[in-house]
Amino acid sequence: SRLLFGLGTGMINAKAISIISERYSGNDKTRMLGYRGSAEVVGSAILTFMVGQLLPLGWPAIFAVYGGGYLILLLYLLFVPYPKEKKQASLKEKKKGSARLRSPQWRFSLMLAVIAGIIICFNSIISLRVPDIIVDARMGTATTAGTVLSLMQLTGIVAGVGFASLTHVFKKNLLMIMCFGFGLALALIGLSGQLWSLVLGTLLAGFTYSTGVTSIFYHLSEKIPTNLLNLATSLVLIGCNLGSAVSSFFIQLVTPLAPSNHLLFVWIGALMLLTGVFASQLLARTK
């Protein structure tokens, strides 16, 4: 059942992202991708709250939150019809275009998947190690750490709302800038000796992380044909899932080089800066 659940969740995630590019273009698409990122944060917060309310009823009751998916399906079927002209255009595109990703498209999708995996991995490390830094340095308690991480998530809402404006200003350079900003935020967390600087670094990390991931899906929708976007999006989401899964193993791997949490964040900050350079080169070479 867990395998089927994971399979279904993965398919829904891919469609929830690619569906925007199927129905919108230009500035509307950019805004919708940003709003999707904001809605993801809000939805996660609401469901987490609901889980807390259902917890006294026992763990089987917690899974009732997934019933919200039926409400979303109903609203989609009622209010989001597929326009006939769009459907015909999509069918023509499938007939004219290739039914498979070409080699350059595969490489572009896989490279974006690697970048997304790195960003997700390092973001997961923040959730794993920032509480330890706060408690060990006596900046606060576990409650303080929970508050800091919650504020970090809320910056994702701001990032989503402002994504269209940032894309308009920085265009192709947005992903690189967000990678650089994320790297600097990670380094700031590692170098923080006071709670205020750690909070500043964590908030900056939340903003740049959310904007960076949304930017990846934006560039994917710009370079990959609509009829192939589901597959390309799935590849990037696999990279995201792998990044989250290997975060603990990555920490163990770099422990000899970074025995302390502070040094760990400086190291991954430097790696994130290199990732930004790689992202810049990838987008510059891809037409």
Structure characterization notes:
With 287 residues, the protein is mainly alpha-helical. It has one domain (1-287): Up-down Bundle (Growth Hormone, Chain: A). The chain contains 13 helices and no strands. Helix 1 (2-23) runs antiparallel to helix 2 (26-54), helix 6 packs antiparallel against helix 10 (195-223) and helix 7 packs parallel to helix 10. The longest helix is centred in the middle third of the chain and has 34 residues, at 103-136. The model has no long low-confidence stretch (mean pLDDT 86).
Number of domains: 1
Beta fraction of the residues?
A: under 5%
Tell me how many strands there are: 0
CATH architecture classification: Up-down Bundle
**Judging from the principal axes of the Cα atoms, what is the shape?**
globular
The description of the largest β-sheet is: none
CATH C-level label:
Mainly Alpha
How is this fold's topology laid out?
Layout lengths: L1 H22 L2 H29 L4 H4 L5 H12 L4 H13 L6 H34 L5 H20 L1 H8 L3 H18 L3 H29 L5 H17 L1 H8 L6 H25 L2
Helix pairs in contact: 1-2, 1-11, 2-7, 2-8, 2-10, 6-7, 6-9, 6-10, 6-11, 6-12, 6-13, 7-10, 9-10, 9-13
Features:
Growth Hormone, Chain: A, single chain, mainly alpha, 287 residues
